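Deviations from the work plan: none for this task. Representative record:
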Amino acid sequence: MVGSPFTNLFGQSPIRPIQEHIGHAHQCAVLLQPFVEAAIKNDWDSANALYKQISDLEHKADEAKTKLRANLPSSLMMPVDRGDLLLMVSKQDKIANHTKDIAGIMVGRQMQIPLEISESMRKFVEIAIETSAQAVKAVNEMDELLELGFKGRVLEVVEKLIEELNRLEHENDELQIQVRSELFQIEDSLSPVNVVFLYKVIEGIGALADAAQSAGGKLQLLIAR
Amino acid sequence: MEILAQHGHLLLIIGCIFAFFMAWGIGANDVANAMGTSVGSRALTVKQAIFIAIIFEFAGAYFAGGEVTSTIRKGILDPDLITNQPELLVFGMMAALLAAGCWLLIASIKGWPVSTTHSIIGALVGFAAVGISVDAVNWGKIGTIVASWVISPLLAGTISYALFTSVQRLVLDTENPFQNARRYVPIYIFFVGFMIAMVTLLKGLKNTSLNLDFGFESKFLNSMPLATAVGILVAIFGALLLRRVSEKQPEGNQNRYANVENLFAILMIFTAAAMAFAHGSNDVANAVGPLAAIASVIESGGEIVKKSALPSWILILGGVGIVVGLATYGFRVMATIGRKITELTPSRGFAAELGAATTVVFASTWGLPISTTHTLVGAVLGVGLARGIGALNLKVVGSIFMSWVVTLPAGAGFAIIFFFILKAIFG
């Protein structure tokens, strides 16, 4: 007895896999803090080891994404829109991708963070990671959302979480401007190529926070079907 | 005529064996679907589900199975056309039972979608149209039955949708879901008890000599007070069970609603019983309807009587067959199904079960043979439409629709073959 038509009616809910996926992506982002710390200290052994971990986690997130996509046939009836869900996954995935890109550039060039901007840089990375953590919080509300059939007071809870997410991303933007201007102050004393890549790294960190915010935005779309 | 006189007892015994075989098939396979929702949502263990199924399948068959049985026995064929050849009816009914039983067995082994109702109806129509004549089939009645196959999932879906939405409003989406669950779950339990009692009083007590007369206008109103009393008693019993559920969140559970779901799991004990009762009332009748026809022809010495009391031993035979099927094979199927349906939490499972059970029980009282599984599928889709279930494969709905299309001619084909074999042996 393989399965009756009745059992086959029930597909696997995408909610747990999507939560797992953002979990991997966020773990990846968390490692950026010690990584940047190692780069400030010029400790490239630790940085390399951390880069390897980041790379592994990014790979894990990729696998989770692929699996999720494979298990979402268009014949599936879900409480949320399939297209929005897939968009949300790709936004979540960008959190991990940006983290790996940033770490990759820095490891490859053994890029030292100038001491003058290290303080702002720390704060900048910290808030980017917090933004990602806030997105995780919002996505983790999805089982409560399902429990209430995507209606009612849980919507307000999610709205509040997303408001905070937007605030964090905005704060991260402000920090980005600050780090850039600090870098601009000292860029004449650095090698031009290094400066170009520093700007790239700063952009990447901003993009990480941005991806987290976009994931939250897609969650809002999902709810408001 | 002389065939029946000569072989009457033998034919009746063979008929009993065939009916038992089909009932066994239903118990081995079909019951698992009916009870799978309770096992899947962890409201019941497989053992508990079997225990409930045994009692209530049997009760449903005995108290509310009569109407469907008589539809199958005399609503589908026009007996006037075969009054001078009653043995044809006996052969045909035996062939139909064996055909449906075999088809169930094959489909179970292959893991195909099956419906006991569709296979027996297909078998009956097949043998009547080919073995007697196309006019022997009561096409009007068949039309009603087919229409009910479409209407029943829709109705069940509507009821489930409404039930689930009411749970959202009254319990889940409130300041204190746990308190509200404690307050409202007994009301749902009352509804379950009331409905089952009502159906039993209206239709089932023909088998017993209990006569209720409170001096009201109709039988319906006469049944009301007692059904209400039963509902209240059952609800009180349920409320006592609910007290044993603690408000503390279970250890290690992330879900804020875990304790509320535990209350709904108690409710599912009752809806599972209702589901088993409904299934027994409708699907057992599929197995014993033809047997009742065989028995009535043989016992009346070859007369095809339109009105004859349904002997209760026949319903009991069907009930026992189902229970044996459950105990020998069905529990394994139930365990499999229970493992697979994990996306259904008690607050949804109960809505689906109650929606389906209500629909099936009422169809039974109208004497309409409907497919319990299809009705349940409709009910689950109703909850899905209320955004209550993580993922449902709509492709399966297509495959179930296909199963209608395949099962009818398959049942018919088998029945025609067996009919001619029986005719050759005895005729």
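Strands of chain A lie at 76-77.
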